[in-house]
Amino acid sequence: MEIKLERLLLKREEVASILGFSMSYLQRVRENTRLHFPEPVYFFEKSSIKTTPFWKLKDIQEWVDKYQGLENG
Fold this sequence. Notes:
Elements: E1 9-11, H1 12-19, H2 23-31, E2 41-44, E3 51-56, H3 57-72
Antiparallel strand pairs: 1-3, 2-3
């Protein structure tokens, strides 16, 4: 069975944990347009009009690779 990384979705808390960020720092990174943080995918919750952001694991991994390359190069 092949698992496709582009289909794995992460919640905001999971993204922060993977990156070692606090929730508030993750929000600041998202708002900083110079960092080109991946855009989330939104899903509507059935019980409300609220949307929940999710990120593709593949997008987060690519962003980390690119960002680390900029820091080290």
